[in-house]
Amino acid sequence: MLRSIATSSTRRFASTNASVEKVWQVYLSGEIHSDWREVIAKGVESKQLPVICVSPNVSHEDSDDCGAIILGMEEKRTNWDKIGAGMNNIRTKNLIEESDIVVVRFGEKYRQWNAAFDAGYAAALGKS
Question: What is the pTM of this model?
Fold first, then answer.
C-alpha cells in the first residue's frame, strides 16, 4: 500500500505583518541535505517579514512516488518514475512562476541538476 505524501513536504513557511500589503513569495530551490530552508524561515518569522517561503518536495521518496500516490500504481516502475517526474515538474514550474523571488542554493556533495534547471527557468522568467 502506498503512503500519503507528508504535509511537511509542502514546505510553506509564512510570517505576515498586517501593516504591509504585499506578501512576497520566495521559492527556495536546491540543496536538500541541510536545514538552510528552515534557517531562512526562522529568520523570516523572527523579523516578522511579509514573506511566504515555498520549496520543491525535498523528500526523495515522496518526490519519486507522487505520481503513483496521486494517480495510482503503474505496472512498470519506469512509468511510475516518469509520471512522478512530470507531476513534480508541473508543481515546480507553478511555484517558480508564482514566486516573486527565487533563491537557488548549490550544494557541494551532489550534482544539482534540478537546481540548475530551476535557476535557468527563473532567469528566463525574469525573477529576482
Answer: 0.77
